[in-house]
Design brief:
Elements (H helix, E strand, L loop, with lengths): L1 E3 L7 E3 L3 E3 L2 E3 L2 E3 L7 E11 L2 E11 L8 H6 L3
Antiparallel strand pairs: 1-6, 2-5, 3-4, 6-7
Length: 78
Amino acid sequence: MTVEIPEDATWLTAGEPGNIGGMTSVELVAAANEGGARKTTVTFKTNVDGKDYIAMADVEQLGAIAAVSVADFLAAPE
């Protein structure tokens, strides 16, 4: 199995694929986020008996907690 993470998602890394209970698995690790929310799509590719399989997963990491005044909080868009 191969794991493809877009080049602009430098905050996300993938470990080497492994096997747990007969299932292929891979660990995704997101770096600490001190900014706003971020999102990317990870692509998983494999070939079984000459047939290609592709799966995609969206990965989203919420942003950091920011210190703001009540007025700024209430004025922020939802």
